[in-house]
Amino acid sequence: MGSVAFRPSSFRVFPLAAVGLLAGLRVLSPVQALAQDVTSREGIALQDQIMDLRQQMSQLQSAAGPGGALPPPVAPGAAPSAPVNGDLTAQLLDRVSTLEQAVRDMRGQLDQLTNQVQTQNAAMSKQIDDMNFAAQNGRGGAAAPSAAPAPAAPKPAKRTVEAVLQDGNAALLRRDYAGAQAAAQEVLAGPRGPRQIDAQFLLAQSLAGQKQYRQSAVAYYDTYNRAPRSGRAPDALLGVTAALLALGDKASACQALDKLKSEFPSPAPKVRTAETSYRTRAGCR
């Protein structure tokens, strides 16, 4: 700190105790009043610092001597004889000002939190009052009629077996083999009936269209086993033959044709034509 010159005519000696008392009353009194409202850890720490500051002020008073007077002023340009006490006093006053500002800041934060809590409490009280009012009105009068539930969407009518097979055969004609397979499996998953033979035959045809020849041969033979004397049986054996030829198993294809000839010696003309063609391709004897 720079030294300050004083004129001897205007200089008056003040006891250090009086200076400390005035500074303490001017600075520490509002701090102490504010610190009493602070209950947080920071507030307690500030109070401890203020107590420490008071002790330092007391030590400074004791170091000044019995009279408690400040050191005499120095003339301009002269070196101060004891600058330590003056510097320490300025530092203490700065610390007190800093602590006072910190207490004011904390008090402002506490006021802000208090306002928030009061606002929340007011909102909660209003909500509770509204709920109580609604509950009382509900008990006092007749309840408002509830809105009629929307009618449920009508379930789509279940298709008949004939309709499913018709769609499956149409899919087969337009080479929608996956659609034909799905229709056949839908009928086969339903209750047993005479049309399941047709569904089994459609399944075999759809698998052949997807070039799943091994599964197709099994499906054709299942068609034959379901009704070995039905009108589908000759066509089913022809289907087995065609699938085996596609797999390159000519010997098994010839066995299927022999079975067809032994069980149906006088087949329909189209069946006989297909049998002759397959025998030639398989090289059957």
Automatic annotation (TrEMBL):
Signal peptide: none annotated. Keywords: Coiled coil. Residues 96-123 form a coiled coil. Residues 136-158, 266-285 are annotated as: Disordered. This is YbgF trimerisation domain-containing protein. It comes from Gluconacetobacter johannae. The lineage of its organism: Bacteria, Pseudomonadati, Pseudomonadota, Alphaproteobacteria, Acetobacterales.
